[in-house]
Amino acid sequence: MSGVQEPVVRRGDDLSAAEVYAIWRIRDAVFAVEQQCDEPDVDGVDLLPTCTHVWLADDAGLTSYLRTFTTESGLRKIGRVATRADARGRGLSSRLMQTVLERWGDGVIALGAQAYLHDWYAGFGFVRSGENFMEAGIEHVPMRRDGTR
């Protein structure tokens, strides 16, 4: 098996069918199977031109993934951060976060962090922006990063 590649950055409207399948495969494994989320993953955002998918892969498929998109109001959000179980602990999600911050870090970015990951996101400059909430049966913390203008 070859090593992990450089991050792939792809707009939702530029994804191939195979890429969509690989994305949904890692998200299904992490969110539906491991975390037993109780809400549908497919939400109508993935294929929009305002959605950008960022991932790393090896010969076995996607190792780490996230998506970022802008809302109708223009706010950039990060979500669906997932790393394959056998690829954890290698800093892969951190590489993806750095990719996002290099591209869009001069503006406001928001996310809903799973509560246990609050400190990890804080390491990228995100701060709590409200009260905890439940999403997909998991406690989350709203966070935002105001950018580095």
Automatic annotation (TrEMBL):
InterPro entries per record: Acyl_CoA_acyltransferase, GNAT_dom
Domain N-acetyltransferase span(s) in chain numbering: 10-148
Name of the protein in its database record: GNAT family N-acetyltransferase
Source organism (scientific name): Aeromicrobium halocynthiae
